Amino acid sequence: MSNRTLAIIKPDAVGKGYTGKIIDRILSAGFNVLGAKLVHLSREKAEGFYAVHTERPFFNDLVDFMTSGPCMPLVVEHDGAVNAFRTLIGSTNPAEADEGTIRKDFAESIQNNAVHGSDSNENAEKEIAFFFTSEEIHPN
Ligand code: CMP
To answer: What pLDDT score was predicted for residue 140?
Structure first.
């Protein structure tokens, strides 16, 4: 089981000033932050990150949203990081997210859902490499 996953604090949450509060939730849940940066994604980069969703009806709106302002990718570490992080953030749709999850408390819609978390160990490693070089990841 991998111990790392990629998180992104998305433009809606960064724009509303929730970055610090969300990082505090992540640390309070026992994750270590091994890497972090603030980036404003180009259209090309956002399309590449979400390439698996190219055929979805929401793809163009999703790319518009992800390029609407800066976001904060994070490399986070925890036992069973992928599942632990997905539990912490809650369902994709905040209306369906459990009480106390990050999306329940900070997301506004199924698209503008405050945070991203990788959905498998394989994708976690790919997504970490999409944003971070090995020199930008700092083991605790
Ligand atoms: P994320 O976990 O980053 O993975 C894909 C993203 O697409 C998702 O969060 C949402 O931001 C967005 N998304 C997923 N499903 C829908 C939907 N039905 N309508 C609009 N956006 C969606």
So the answer is: 74
What is the distance in A from the centroid of ligand 1 to the CA of 110? 6
Alpha helix (H) residue ranges in 16-119 = 19-28, 43-49, 59-66, 81-89, 102-106
d(CA 73, CA 70): 10
Give CA–CA dist 10/93, Å, rounded: 14
Amino acid letter for position 133: T
pLDDT digits (tens, 9 = 90+) for 7-44: 999 999 999 999 999 999 999 999 999 999 999 999 99
Instruction: Report the C-alpha gap between 87 and 66 in whole angstroms.
Output: 22
Is any ligand 1 atom within 6 A of the Cβ of residue 121? no
Model confidence at 1: pLDDT above 90? no
User: Distance between CA atoms of 87 and 26, rounded to whole angstroms?
Assistant: 11
CA-closest residue to ligand 1 atom 4: 116
**Which residue has 């997504």 as its token pair?**
127
